[in-house]
Amino acid sequence: QVQLAESGGGLVQPGGSLRLSCVASGLAASFEGYGMVWYLQAPGKGREFVARIDSIGRRLEYADFAKCRFTVSRDNAKKTMYLQVDSLTAEDTTVYYCNLPAENYWGQGTQVTVSS
User: Is the dihedral of CA 66, 76, 56, 107 positive or negative?
Assistant: First the structure.
């Protein structure tokens, strides 16, 4: 059974940083064969694209709002994708999801709350 497990969320003060992780397990093929995507979902809104990374981490794509403060990366040996978020503000309070688009797998999400 394929699972994508996000972690790294929590309560952080404004101006702080977080690194979110998404660990894949149960894949029939090698993790390094899949591109991966991060989304966020703010309260009362639909899921919004944040960043995409290709299977070997060479090609990165960001939503316009994410180009300055967000960094997507991956470690294929650990079957893990990361999202570094810097200079957090209250507007970054949301749930982050990882997605494996080729098979339409989703993680359960990790909550990020930015508050003093």
Answer: negative
